[in-house]
Write a structure and sequence with these properties.
GH116_catalytic, Beta-galactosidase, Chain A, domain 5, alpha+beta, Non-lysos_glucosylceramidase, ten-stranded antiparallel β-sheet, single chain, globular, 6hp_glycosidase-like_sf, hydrolase activity, hydrolyzing O-glycosyl compounds, Glycosyltransferase
């Protein structure tokens, strides 16, 4: 409610800012008598639909003919370089690269307020509260820059010209597989078909190559007729330098033709004697390049729409042109070729940008932002970005496409692969930055709530597995750096943008330290940071005031309130963090502290299971003095109640909670919190933000199945609104846990209803929304993929393991490790198991492996081959797992495989 306070006191982020999550209607809405629980026990799920969730299926396609293209916006820029979307018909849009994204000036992808009928009243919904969920941004309304392609074909003496846009073709098919989109254009009785591929270089483990402020655009024109054709392609781009600040008479836009070793390029810039324009947020350069021989450039391209005259003019263009700041300047690159019958012609383009004048308020907020972006320390302008891309073209394109092929070479359903991976695209939006110092920094959602918030980002499992360098740096530079209190061990949950910790953020970050250690090639990360990690753990343990192993110090959590008492989800998360700390202590040889952690885990687990389990699910026990005066979850069914055990699965820890009680809690969440249609619930339980609407499925955050009066405490506060919402990041966390525990149907259903909420017919499939757009917590979705693979990894120990949950008898999926990635597969045939680890990129060091036995109880023999050579080993059968220790450590290289037979 105090939005201006953020601008005046940006470093004093506290409850004043957090309260902006809900407008003033919240308190009065929550004051009414609490409604009856009305989520049906019978989920009314069609059996055929359920069976179909496990089917491999076909790649996802969104079609013009089904009206599915309007909202599509897949990020196709490099990590932390702003947001550039590829639309459903292949045109780029949004262009959130101009350093405008700052709360509240330009928040989210479409900073508008909309009106939403929640079933009882019409409310105003802001960008940070989900306006883009109610009314998604439409690509046609957000085309900041003029950009596109057109083809000219001469067929049977007639000239045909079509732009690559929806209304020029009978059918346009958008096939997404992040980071790559494939768009196909078709028209009956037309002599060619066009396939258009767009992406930014994206190579897991190679953060630098994946962080270029650029987009690659690849075209293939297929001759469908039985005769040769004459064909031309033109790609054009508007000069975007000083896009918003350039005014008539105040400077010159310039377009200049440059040569490449293979192709041509156009550099766009802006010149002015006005110093303010040179330092404006939109001051910078852009570059359009064609990386194909025999390209021809024109610095000024018109008229519109594209016509034969436009193509003819391309052959007469000047090499450089200037126009007044008030005029539009568009440059273009032409390619022409004859295409033989049945053959194809291919052309490669790229667009790069360089805008290094960060928003002044961001510079006030984060000291590291004052020196600009990381990419600007590598390149002085867009031309240098383009030259780098040209010099590394083969590596960048080959390995990006290799990753996509590796990811999709899987037995898992296409829809599942899409939904569990797609949120990594958050890194390629204006939600994240990498400053000149190398520091990685992010909002919670685009432009909303700063400081790479620990209690949000700790849910995000994707970054550490795909770009582990970023998470390791964040741990050291922020969590044990600018956001760390050396004397107390406090991790400030928004770095320098906060003055106190959040207990769940503290515990989750300890678990992240263990994960980052596992995703390292050696133990230097752990050894270097152990002193600080230990201090952080000691602070967490000290919050158990009565010594029963259950945290009881009132402290803020991710639901933006200070809860009193012993809260199951916080207790369990801290137990899991202490268990991770025990492992780390043992690895560095700190046996005394390992014992302290072990004793805490034993005590905390025992008391949590005995005192916070109500026979069906885990609860929040009120403070003995305060009682239920303040907000809490108390006897209600809370979505994160067994989150600690969920985290334990992600990092291969032994169980930290009893399996039967944990399963009971997950089943209670399914029974009481999940609905295939949340409409009836949100109509009666008003006050939440609209992240799932009537007719859509989801898991509600917190429900009151016992129909207690005042279930969340005596005092009504704005944070209560969270309890009535479906926030996808929390839902993904539960889906990951359910998958790991063997509740496979429930996990798939929950993941699928999220996927369906973001179907392209309704909203942008690439933008999961919570507090603003591209919300970081949604990257918890990758955890469900980890669980589906039963994946465990410890780089310093050279250990890798798999225990697939979906079709384990014939399974295949991608994996990433500290220094390489590839494909894992396993098959079961006549009681025998075959396991193969194939490397596609980097290297993989292996000393031990573990696999689930699909026929437990029998004595088995193990044979391992590497490059056709039998490997000496020691095998140990532990219940349903086979642990294999190699007598000599192996290092797999690209194209090599390790084959294991269990017979």
């Amino acid at each position: 409610m105090q939005r201006r306070r953020f601008l005046k006191q940006s470093v004093l982020i506290g409850f004043g800012l957090l309260a902006t999550r809900f407008p003033t209607w919240a308190a009065s809405t929550f004051a009414q008598d609490y409604p009856k629980h009305n989520i049906p026990v019978d989920k009314n799920i069609d059996a055929n639909w359920l069976r179909g969730l496990r089917v491999r299926g076909t790649p996802i396609s969104y079609l013009k003919s089904r009206n599915e293209l309007n909202y599509i916006g897949m990020p196709v820029g490099g990590l932390h370089s702003g947001t550039v979307y590829i639309g459903g018909d292949g045109r780029l849009w949004l262009w959130q690269i101009y350093n405008q994204t700052i709360e509240p000036c330009h928040e989210g992808i479409d900073p508008k307020t909309v009106r939403w009928d929640d079933g009882t009243s019409v409310r105003e919904i802001r960008s940070r509260d989900g306006s883009a969920y109610v009314e998604p941004a439409i690509a046609e309304n957000k085309r900041v820059l003029d950009q596109g392609f057109a083809i000219k074909v001469i067929y049977k003496g007639e000239t045909f010209i079509k732009e690559l846009k929806a209304d020029h073709w009978e059918e346009v098919i958008f096939q997404p597989s992040y980071p790559i989109s494939l768009i196909t254009y078709k028209t009956s009785e037309f002599p060619v078909e066009v396939q258009f591929t767009a992406y930014a270089p994206f190579i897991p483990l190679d953060t630098e190559s994946s962080s270029l402020p650029a987009t690659i655009l690849r075209l293939e024109i297929k001759n469908l007729v039985n005769e040769d054709l004459e064909m031309s392609i033109v790609g054009w781009m508007e000069n975007g330098a000083n896009r918003f600040t350039a005014e008539k008479g105040k400077g010159k836009k310039r377009s200049k033709v440059n040569d490449l070793e293979r192709g041509k390029a156009l550099l766009f810039d802006f010149s002015s004697t006005d110093k303010a324009l040179a330092s404006a947020q939109d001051a910078g350069t852009m570059c359009l390049a064609c990386h194909t021989q025999d390209a021809y450039c024109i610095a000024d391209f018109s008229p519109w729409p594209v016509s034969s005259e436009s193509f003819n003019k391309l052959e007469q263009g000047a090499a450089q042109i200037e126009k007044d700041a008030g005029e539009k300047l568009v440059g273009a690159i032409l390619l022409g070729s004859a295409i033989e019958a049945g053959k194809s012609f291919k052309a490669d383009y790229s667009i790069s940008w360089h805008f290094n004048n960060l928003h002044p308020k961001l510079k006030e907020l984060v000291k590291d932002a004052q020196a600009g972006y990381w990419y600007a320390t590598k390149f002085k302008d867009a031309w240098e970005v383009n030259q780098y891309i040209a010099s590394k073209w083969d590596y960048l394109t080959t390995h990006t496409e290799l990753w996509q092929q590796t990811w999709n070479d899987s037995s898992l359903p296409h829809w599942f692969l899409d939904r569990t991976f797609v949120n990594i695209g958050t890194l390629a939006t204006a939600n994240t930055y990498r400053f000149a110092s190398g520091r990685f920094w992010g909002w919670e959602g685009v432009g909303a709530c700063p400081g790479t918030c620990t209690h949000v980002w700790q849910y995000a499992q994707a970054v550490a597995r795909i770009f582990p360098e970023l998470e390791r740096d964040l741990r050291q530079r922020v969590d044990l750096g600018v956001g760390f209190k050396q004397d107390s061990g406090v991790i400030l949950f928004r770095g320098e943008n906060q003055t106190h910790p959040a207990i769940d953020g503290q515990a989750g970050t300890i678990l992240r330290f263990y994960r980052e250690h596992q995703m390292s090639s050696d133990d230097q990360f752990l050894k270097t940071n152990w002193f600080g990690i230990k201090k952080a753990v000691q602070f967490m343990l000290a919050q158990d005031k009565n010594g029963d192993g259950m945290i009881d110090t009132p402290m803020e959590n991710t639901l933006d309130a200070v809860w009193e008492g012993e809260i199951a989800w916080i207790v369990g998360l801290c137990v899991a963090a202490a268990r991770a700390a025990e492992e780390m202590a043992n690895e560095v040889g700190d046996k005394a502290f390992a014992k302290v952690c072990s004793e805490y885990v034993t005590k905390g687990r025992k008391n949590m299971e005995e005192q916070l389990y109500n026979g069906e699910y885990f609860i929040h026990r009120p403070d003995s003095v305060q009682g239920r005066k303040k907000l809490g979850s108390y006897n209600t069914c809370h979505i994160d109640q067994v989150y600690g055990q969920s985290w334990a699965f992600q990092v291969g820890l032994p169980r930290v909670l009893d399996r039967d009680k944990t399963l009971s809690a997950l089943k209670a969440l399914w029974k009481y919190n999940f609905a295939m249609d949340v409409g009836p619930y949100i109509k009666t339980h008003v006050g939440g933000r609209p992240y799932a609407l009537a007719g859509e499925g989801g898991m509600v955050m917190n429900t009151n199945p016992k129909n207690e009066p005042k279930p969340y405490g005596e005092n009504v506060t704005w944070q209560l609104g969270y309890f009535h919402e479906c926030m996808s990041g929390f839902e993904h966390q539960v889906a990951a846990h359910m998958m790991a525990e063997g509740m496979i149907d429930e996990s798939l259903i929950l993941t699928r209803v999220i996927h369906d909420r973001y179907h392209a017919a309704k909203r942008n499939p690439f933008n999961e929304i919570e507090c603003s757009d591209h919300y970081a917590r949604a990257m918890a979705s990758y955890g469900t993929f980890i669980s589906a693979c039963g994946y465990e990894y410890h780089g310093p120990k050279g250990h890798i393991g798999f225990a697939p949950k979906v079709k384990p008898e014939d399974f295949r999926a991608a994996f990433t490790a500290a220094e390489g990635w590839g494909t894992y597969s396993q098959q079961k045939n006549n009681g025998q198991q075959r396991h193969t680890i194939s490397l596609a990129y980097g290297e993989l060091t292996l000393s031990s492996l573990s696999f689930e036995l699909l026929n437990a109880g029998e004595e088995r023999q193990v044979i391992v081959h590497h490059n056709g050579k039998k490997i000496a080993l020691k095998a140990e059968q532990l219940n349903n797992k086979m642990l294999i220790r190699l007598k000599t450590t192996l290092v797999l290289k690209p194209t090599e495989s390790l084959k294991v037979e269990i017979i």
